[in-house]
Design goal:
The complex is a heterodimer of chains A (about 110) and B (about 110). Chain A has about 110 residues and is an all-beta fold. Chain A is about 0% helix and about 55% strand. In chain A, strands 2, 4, 5, 9, 10 and 11 form a 6-stranded mixed sheet that branches. Chain A has a 5-stranded antiparallel sheet with strand order 1-3-8-7-6, with no helix packed on it. In chain A, a hairpin with a 6-residue loop joins strand 4 (about 30-40) and strand 5 (about 45-50). Chain A is globular and about 40 Å long. Chain B has about 110 residues and is an all-beta fold. The N and C termini of chain B lie far apart (about 35 Å). Classes of the chains: A mainly beta (about 110), B mainly beta (about 110).
């Protein structure tokens, strides 16, 4: 069965450093991958989309890579700030009409 | 403003008492879905709908019902709630067709069944 793993439940880093979160998947051939941010008790909010034919996407301090050979996506937050503390979810999709499959998330804490 | 609105936000109910969680979106999206989120289990899809009068089971549909009579609304019905349905519920919507369309989530409904 398809499986999505996000590297760890929790990640602590110092303010100003680059946070790197990992999303690995097996038994799945996604056409695209998305990253979402979720604050406690709130709904997830879309951050970035990367498609299977793209290697890298950037948006301000965020960067995501997608390696379909390794079956892995990396999500980077550069110059991290305490306000970046949240849970980050990766989600994989195939066609436009099939449900997304979500990972369990990584809780990031940026320490001042 | 693009919005997915769900109600109630917080509810404590008793076992067996039917309840409905409403969901409405203002983006004219075809696709709507319900998720539950539990510690250590992440987001799990309950039901989804690709358009009016079209619904399908997700990963954990047992104990839930849905209906899609109008495009904007997608209520979640718990006919006979049980304590194992205590959870945080999210309604979500997105446009159909294109790969990678953004999912918009509601603010969540905290449900406790005692």
């Amino acid at each position: 069965s398809q499986k999505i793993e996000q590297n760890s439940e929790a990640l602590n880093i110092q303010e100003g450093k680059t946070a790197t979160l990992t999303c690995n998947y097996t038994n799945y051939s996604p056409a695209y991958l998305q990253w979402y941010r979720q604050d406690p008790g709130r709904g997830p909010v879309f951050l970035l989309l990367i498609r299977e034919n793209e290697k890298e996407k950037r948006k301000e301090r965020l960067k995501v890579t997608f390696d379909t050979t390794l079956k892995q996506s990396l999500f980077h937050i550069t110059a991290s700030q305490p306000a970046d503390s949240a849970t980050y979810l990766c989600a994989l999709g195939q066609s436009g009409n099939t449900p997304l499959v979500f990972g369990k998330g990584t809780r990031l804490s940026v320490i001042a | 403003e693009a919005q997915v609105t769900q109600n109630p936000r917080y509810l404590i109910t008793v076992t067996g008492k039917k309840l409905t969680v409403t969901c409405s979106q203002n983006m004219n999206h075809e696709y709507m879905s319900w998720y539950r989120q539990d510690p250590g289990l992440g987001l799990r899809q309950i039901y989804y709908s690709m358009n009016v009068e079209v619904t399908d089971k997700g990963d954990v549909p047992e104990g839930y019902k849905v209906s899609r009579k109008e495009k904007r609304n997608f209520p979640l019905i718990l006919e006979s709630p049980s304590p194992n349905q205590t959870s945080l519920y999210f309604c979500a919507s997105r446009a159909q067709g294109m790969k990678g369309n953004t999912i918009y989530f509601g603010e969540g409904s905290w449900l406790t069944v005692v």
